């Protein structure tokens, strides 16, 4: 298919500058290229658009009519391209974000009003899920997840680091005592996950040896938020991400346990997205905003309280 718009632009430029050679110099091409493009136009239209001499060109009657319409079309194309180029750098359009539930509740929701105020032309569509996400199936532009990349075709930018902490409510510890060593957890009610079974293998370091300890209890759930609420309620001991429980630790609703045996392992919260040669501004500015606002999150190491003696009541909840 012929490049009609390109031929029209060459025709308009030649008429405006008065010769093929002048148009060629302006466009840094050869005069013959301009002449051939105009010739193709005339052949396709079946009319002569220009009268040619060795030094100049002149519009025919048909060429005059065609030139005015071409000039309008070329100007409209130029204006359209200027508009698109300007909008390319202005974040706009629908932005689909998927986040794990605890991150959305504690970190995204508080800052999203500021994001939308800063970028009023963005329409944000937020969904939450704690399941492993497929960006294509979910139609998400950005996923905020607690894990490194599993798919090498995706890109990820780390937002902040966190660690998981073994915690319990003061009420639970008053009734059942405080574990002094990881092995003591076998006598306690540990709140566990029913989907991510690997999260029920709690890592520790003792006497220079790293190991994981399977935990058990009378309650399992698929979401960390559920375990968090029941830990605060005093049902048992849980191992939770510190960004979920910072306020509870500060206010004394939960206390950290076995910190002397913590492996000091950290994980990252990532913004995951498809790599694109021309990244839409709405995706780029959202990821930058997350890092701007949440990248300052401080990983605080809690202080474990003095251990209390166990009560004579059996520790394990049947």
TrEMBL record:
InterPro entries tied to this protein: LysR-type_TF_proteobact-type, LysR_HTH_N, LysR_subst-bd, WH-like_DNA-bd_sf, WH_DNA-bd_sf
Domain of life from the UniProt record: Bacteria
The HTH lysR-type domain, residue ranges: 8-60
Entry-linked Gene3D superfamilies: 3.40.190.290, Winged helix-like DNA-binding domain superfamily/Winged helix DNA-binding domain
GO MF annotation, one: DNA-binding transcription factor activity
One matching Pfam family: LysR_substrate
GO biological process assignments: DNA-templated transcription
Keywords on record: DNA-binding, Transcription, Transcription regulation
Family the UniProt entry places it in: Belongs to the LysR transcriptional regulatory family.
Name of the molecule in the record: LysR family transcriptional regulator
Organism field: Xanthobacter tagetidis
């Amino acid at each position: 298919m012929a490049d009609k718009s390109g031929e029209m632009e060459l025709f308009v430029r030649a008429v405006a500058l008065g010769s093929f050679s002048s148009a060629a110099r302006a466009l840094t091409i050869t005069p013959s290229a301009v002449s051939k493009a105009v010739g193709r136009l005339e052949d396709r239209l079946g009319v002569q658009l220009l009268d040619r001499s060795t030094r100049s060109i002149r519009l025919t009657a048909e060429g005059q009519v065609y030139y005015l319409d071409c000039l309008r079309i070329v100007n409209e194309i130029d204006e359209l391209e200027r508009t698109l180029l300007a909008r390319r750098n202005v974040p706009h359009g629908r932005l689909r974000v998927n986040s794990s539930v605890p991150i959305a509740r504690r970190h995204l929701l508080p800052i999203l009003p500021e994001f939308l105020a800063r970028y009023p032309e963005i329409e944000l569509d937020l969904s939450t899920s704690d399941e492993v996400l497929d960006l294509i199936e979910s139609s998400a532009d950005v996923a905020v997840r607690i894990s490194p990349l599993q798919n090498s075709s995706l890109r990820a930018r780390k937002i902040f680091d966190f660690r998981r902490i073994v915690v319990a409510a003061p009420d639970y510890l008053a009734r059942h005592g405080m574990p002094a060593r990881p092995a003591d957890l076998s006598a306690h009610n540990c709140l566990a996950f029913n989907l991510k079974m690997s999260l029920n293998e709690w890592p520790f370091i003792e006497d220079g040896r790293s190991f994981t300890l399977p935990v058990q209890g009378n309650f399992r759930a698929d979401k960390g938020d559920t375990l968090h609420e029941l830990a605060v309620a005093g049902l048992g001991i849980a191992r939770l991400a510190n960004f979920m429980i910072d306020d509870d630790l500060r206010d004394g609703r939960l206390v950290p346990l076995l910190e002397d045996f913590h492996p000091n392992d950290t994980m990252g919260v990532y913004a995951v997205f498809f790599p694109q040669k021309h990244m839409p501004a709405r995706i780029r500015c959202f990821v930058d905003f997350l890092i701007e606002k949440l990248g300052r999150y401080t990983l605080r190491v809690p202080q474990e309280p003095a251990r209390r003696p166990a009560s004579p009541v059996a520790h394990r909840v049947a």
